[in-house]
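Hi all, long-time lurker, first post. I run a small reading group and we've been trying to get comfortable going from sequence to structure in the token notation. Rather than ask abstract questions, I figured I'd post a concrete chain and ask someone more experienced to write out its structure so we can walk through it together at our next meeting. Sequence below, copied exactly:
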Amino acid sequence: MATASTRMAQRSFFALLGANFFSAMGNSFTMLAIPLYVLETTISATRTGIVAFANTSPAILSAIIGGPLVDRLGRKRTAITSDLLSMITLGCIPLLAKLDLLTFPLLLVIVAMGAVFDPPGGSAKQAMVPILSRKADYSPERAQSFFTVTFGVSQIIGPAFAGVLVATIGAAGTIWVNCGTFALTILLISLFVYGGESPNERTTSTFVQDLRGGWESVLRDDFLRTVMIISAAFSGIFVPIYTVLYPVYFTEIMDSTKALGLFIGVEAGGSLLGGILYGVFGARFSRRNAMAFCLIAWVPALWIFLLSPPLSVLLVAGFLGGLVAGPLNPIFNVAFQVRTPESMRARIYGIAMASNFVAVPLGALLMGPLIQILSVLPALGLLSVVVTVMCVWAAFRPVLRELDLPPAQDEAAQAPS
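-- Answer (accepted) --
Happy to help. Here is the structure in token form:
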């Protein structure tokens, strides 16, 4: 029977999940609403692209330096402050526009500031998951599955809801609704999340020493370094597959954007189901074996595109591919959870986030010209070979056996009192 402290930790954990859901949904609003607002008010695709760049690129540096900042402010305080500042900067856009004070350079500054404020809050929320889940008596598999699935649901609902809002109340009105999602996040964390701080939170080192310490931990630890490389590499491939390759394939080969939407929806459904099933059953299996299986089992879902099969076959392949790939993000998060010392979590998560922020646009930048030069099917064939080699290499890395070792502990926590 659960104790009172366990029940309180469970309430805090689910409040954190709710906060993560609304924060992630708000970010998906921002990704859609701000470019549409710029396009609506300036009728300039060039300026829209510049604003989109300002909305993403500063996050890389912010993610890197955000970890030591979390250590100093505390996880809960950082999460609240991050969302509060994001809400304020976002609200300035329609407010200043209403007052006829919003120039384009000022808009770029505001958007860049919003991009800077977000990553430390994300690192802080993610750093609270392991300690809250442990207090709530949830396995790492279940906790990270919950966390990943709620994020995935927000990325499905958010853009669709934002599109409806833009069509109904306009881009400026959608930005105000976006502010409301951040307000909900702040309330949930402020009122209901307790006990997520690191017991070794206080530090006597300098900010630069903490920043260097995070990087040294990653570079010295073969396991963390390997997992971070695999995670970034697959982010740099998977995301451009969705944003570049699939749209070109379904437009040129299938001649149907409707089929594209249907395929992505079916694959997303399979991925969510896979993540949920991993949360329910994942603790029964070797984590290393689960990662190896998912990496290799997903590969045929990409190769089948080369056969130009009918849509029905692609939908089945997409669902099955999503189903076996769905556990990968929870497994990566479990890897960071069980092999990262508690006092280093925010820094390690920040570095991992920054790595993904770099990998995704770089992958998209390479994939576009590749398709342009080779055409879609040859480019898909080359990509399938590269992905297959990567998956096999990653699945059989000996260091991944450490996934099944006991959790890493802080030296301070291990020292006798």
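A couple of things your group might point at:
Confidence is low (pLDDT under 50) at residues 410-417.
The CA atoms of residues 255 and 416 lie 67 Å apart.
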